[in-house]
Amino acid sequence: MISTRNICTGIIAVAVQAAGVLAAAVSSPPTVDLGYATYQGYYNDTFDLNIWKSVRYAAPPVGKLRWQAPQPPLKGNREIVPAIDQPPLCPQSGAFGVPDTYGFNSALGNEDCLYLNVYAAPNASNLPVLLWIHGGGHSVFGATYDPSAWMNVNENGFITVEIQYRLGAFGFLASADIKNNGQLNAGLLDQRFALEWVQRHISKFGGDATRVTIGGESSGAGCVLHHVMGYGGEETDIFSNAIAASPYLPAIHWYNDTVPTKRYNRFAELAGCSKESLKSSNHSSIFDCLVATDSVVLQRASGTVSTTQGTFGTFGFSPVVDGDYIQERPAVQLSRAKVIGKRLLVGNNANEGVPLTNPQVNTTSAYDDFIATTFPSLSPSDTTLLRKVYQIDDLPCDDDLLYDTTGSRGPTALCKSGMAIGIQQAVFNIAGENEFDCPAQWLAEAFSSGSRKSWKYQYSLMPNYHGADLTSYFSVGAELPNADFMRTMQKIWGSFIIHDTPVISALDATAKRDNATVPANADGSIKWPEFTLEYPIQMNLNTTGGDVSRITVPPYLKYNVRGGPGIVNTFSLTDAFAWEGGRGKRCDFWRSVSERVPQ
């Protein structure tokens, strides 16, 4: 007979031991020696995580290191460095034409910003690692997203490293001068350097350097796209998995093309380093002048170029084809499946064209102007075909009501959404597919060959504009979407990081709600096949139920949200090529004109 007293004694002993571990964690802040510095973080008892913030991973890219490849940190003294505060943001360069309401704004920052944050369980050992690259048009934002709740949902079964990198002109200034005297795509190389830092140091935090997932959203996912093509798709063990949420691929030029060169010259002029200015200075070249110029002057020049040159929703500085790290246009390289990494999870939001697309293009004449200014290198035959592909002259909508489409039947995103109808929605769809949806499809196709694997999804629940999905995984303090969906999304991504597959149990996918709907296998897991060219299936992630209300963000953005009780997950498998009236064929169009877009 088992003694109840012995059981109780054992429980008490375990509880005392656990309390002792917790007390030790609280009384002894986590400290890690990286060789060049020793950092002391803090323990967060809400999420049972050790957290280190503002860990330097590269030398300050200032002075002679401006527009150069990142360098290792210099060894400091043996004093312990507190690692409890957020790192300073890199200089911010805003978007053209987008109201300040949406946050894509220029702001002064600190060039000395190459830091990262680490989140790890106190007793972590050989755990897989997520390296997160923040979005923001290669120009704004930083390592400000809190993954703690996401990690908790997955029993703290992975480590998160969130990095900062040079933005705007500091990270992506391009010209022949930069090529000859410095380093192109410095911001991308910062990220690559952080990946190398993970290989050297993550074991000291309890991580497994052989199980690294590189992930990002928007331009962060665009950077993921560039890294899987890095150095022409060389074989490397620097990461094994990739997550790309709404990968952003704006026009990508050769470093010495007209567009980047024009912006370089304007930047130099604003910084007081034009060729004319050099005549009365001690500098021998524009580049030398820029290296010697005060940071605030350069920051303002970067912000001015970014917010005054381009079209609505664009940023002044982004990756270029440099012939080294980025060796050719992505549309070309991805078509040949020249990528690194073993597995890919890639997805889009239903309305990627909002809010970075002009929201006032609602007539055919305005459409013509939009196409001419946004895609100036398209030929007359290209624009005629574009008009046909998107059915501009005969948009298939039979009412003027705003509502989200099903994606597989009835009105399509060609002219209908919960945010716009007619020509305006067609323009949102053109911009969204060109810059986000089709790059995601090309990525999925590239990872569907050989031994690689890819899974694809669409984030369809309201609201579903670009960036709305961020709160689904960085959910600390978030009110949208509902708790069940956030937990399921975090389980899907966590499973991919930990188990190399987004397939989770049907119970987790339904949040144990009887009226939720998900495709399921006989073994109790959700049915989510790999994406292949022969079987181009994606998972449509959606919800239903609750109450629908209308939200307005002045002056442009309006969208529907689901709130209140009764919201449940509704997932379904769909044909990604047939989706929204034939997205696959429209992506074929964009690939066919990618030399002139260019992508």
Q: Any chance you could write out the topology, listing elements then pairs?
A:
Elements: H1 4-27, E1 31-33, E2 38-40, E3 42-44, E4 49-56, E5 80-82, E6 115-120, E7 127-133, H2 148-153, E8 159-163, H3 168-172, H4 176-181, H5 186-201, E9 207-217, H6 219-228, H7 230-233, E10 241-245, H8 258-270, H9 275-278, H10 286-292, H11 295-308, H12 330-335, E11 343-349, H13 364-374, H14 380-389, H15 422-446, E12 453-459, H16 470-473, H17 483-499, H18 506-510, E13 537-544, E14 547-553, E15 557-563, E16 568-575, H19 579-592
Parallel strand pairs: 2-5, 7-8, 7-9, 9-10, 10-11, 11-12, 12-13
Antiparallel strand pairs: 1-2, 3-4, 4-6, 6-8, 13-16, 14-15
Largest sheet: 11 strands, mixed
Structural class: alpha/beta
How many DSSP H or I helices?
19
What is the number of domains?
2
The parts where pLDDT drops under 50 for at least 5 residues are 1-25
Report the span from N to C terminus. 73 Å
**Strand order of the biggest β-sheet:** 3-4-6-8-7-9-10-11-12-13-16
Overall shape: globular
Radius of gyration: 25 Å
DSSP, total strands:
16
Please provide a written account of the structure:
- The chain has helices spanning 4-27, 148-153, 168-172, 176-181, 186-201, 219-228, 230-233, 258-270, 275-278, 286-292, 295-308, 330-335, 364-374, 380-389, 422-446, 470-473, 483-499, 506-510, 579-592; strands at 31-33, 38-40, 42-44, 49-56, 80-82, 115-120, 127-133, 159-163, 207-217, 241-245, 343-349, 453-459, 537-544, 547-553, 557-563, 568-575.
- By secondary structure, the protein is an alpha/beta fold.
- It folds into two domains: 32-254 and 320-335, Alpha/Beta hydrolase fold, catalytic domain (Rossmann fold, 3-Layer(aba) Sandwich), CATH 3.40.50; 351-592, no CATH class.
- It has an eleven-stranded mixed β-sheet, with helices on both faces. A three-stranded mixed β-sheet has the order 1-2-5, with no helix packed on it. Strands 14-15 form a two-stranded antiparallel sheet.
- Helix 15 (422-446) packs across helix 19 (579-592).
- The longest helix has 25 residues, at 422-446.
- Mean pLDDT is 94; it is low at 1-25.
